[in-house]
Design a protein that fits this description.
With about 350 residues, this protein is α/β, with parallel strands linked by helices. Helix content is about 20%, strand content about 30%.
Length: about 350
């Protein structure tokens, strides 16, 4: 079966973390989220996956390769100019052929039952199906309104509290029949949420929403949601297959006198110095170093990060290979290296 991972965006909502690291490679518990998505799709029988790339495209291709180490084949669409979510899909029309297929965002972390969603889609002879999860607070999501049979009868985009017509949020996980391409023009910018879906609903097309309430889903595309997903994994509120949760890699070095309180994920080759205090949930990436006396609480350190002597972090995210100075205090912020100015 075939699927597409949408991965072309600039991911400005994660700045500064993504100024040198593209969103598909943002790590959750030490593994790029695109790898989690690929493994999720593969577990549901999808073995041919297309990925559109634009921003820092070479880094994505280098990291994911041809997909063989994940048991899939990856085909890349290099977009010199982004044409939107639907516009990217349109360029891959020939790849998908005449079978049902799935589209997933590179920032989705989920255990949503794709097998049940596909069965729901086929039972209703749907043209398109959106997978939905229930959220108590839907102010930051696109809301979908269903009738008694699951047909989509309306949308709301980020409704103010108290005005929502539904608690069902769009996950960005879609199931399509090949006939969807007739609803997407070529060579122009076209978006699923703003153009394709409202037109399908207005036309009365066989367009459904699969209610996946109870499934885990998180869009890691904002700093707050990225923290939530990372901590959910470390605290085992959500388990990523093949990745596990809290734990200390056997190649990590923990000095005498260092203390770990609560849940922590400590990656390969990480070094935790004497007198360091980790207060979970905490993620320490591969090759990261915490110098003597550092205190790190509810924070995420990416690969190669270095935390100076007696530095203190609370609710911080430290990007790849970034150095926090001796004695520095970081509270609730994200820091990362940025590309050198051109010219």
């Amino acid at each position: 079966m075939k699927a597409m991972i949408l991965a072309g965006g600039l991911s400005t909502r994660l700045y500064p973390l993504t100024k040198e690291v593209p969103k598909p490679l943002v790590p959750v518990a030490g593994v790029p989220n695109a790898v989690h998505v690929i493994r999720y799709l593969h577990a549901h029988g999808f073995d041919e996956i297309a990925i559109n790339v634009h921003y820092l495209a070479e880094a994505i291709v280098d990291a994911l390769g041809d997909g063989s180490r994940f048991g899939v084949r990856i085909e890349y669409l290099h977009e010199p100019v982004l044409l939107g979510s639907a516009g990217a899909l349109k360029q891959l029309e020939g790849f998908f052929g005449d079978a049902t297929f799935v589209v997933v965002g590179c920032d989705d972390l989920t255990d949503l039952p794709l097998d049940r969603a596909l069965a729901f889609h086929r039972e209703r002879s749907a043209l398109a199906t959106i997978a939905l999860v229930e959220r108590e607070d839907v102010e930051q999501y696109g809301v979908v309104v269903l009738d008694a049979h699951g047909k989509i009868v309306g949308f709301q985009e980020k409704p103010a509290r108290g005005t929502e017509l539904s608690k069902l949020a769009n996950t960005g996980i879609y199931i399509f029949e090949p006939e969807i391409f007739a609803h997407i023009p070529a060579h122009v910018f076209f978006d699923f949420g703003k153009q394709v879906f409202p037109r399908l609903q207005a036309a009365g097309a066989p367009f459904y929403g699969f209610d996946a309430r109870g499934a885990y889903w998180c869009d890691i595309g904002t700093l707050d949601e990225y923290r939530r997903a990372s901590f959910d994994v470390v605290e085992r509120a959500f388990t990523i297959p093949e990745s596990g949760g809290a734990g200390i890699d056997p190649t990590a070095s923990i000095a005498p006198g260092a203390t770990i309180e609560g849940d922590a994920w400590i990656g390969p080759g990480a070094r935790v110095g004497a007198g360091v205090r980790l207060i979970g949930p905490v993620v320490v990436g591969a090759g990261a170093t915490l110098e003597a006396g550092a205190r790190v609480e509810r924070s995420i350190l990416w690969d190669g990060a270095r935390i100076g002597v007696n530095a203190e972090l609370r609710g911080a995210i430290v990007g790849k290979n970034f150095r926090v100075a001796d004695g520095e205090r970081l509270d609730g912020i994200a820091v990362a290296n940025e590309p050198a100015p051109s010219g």
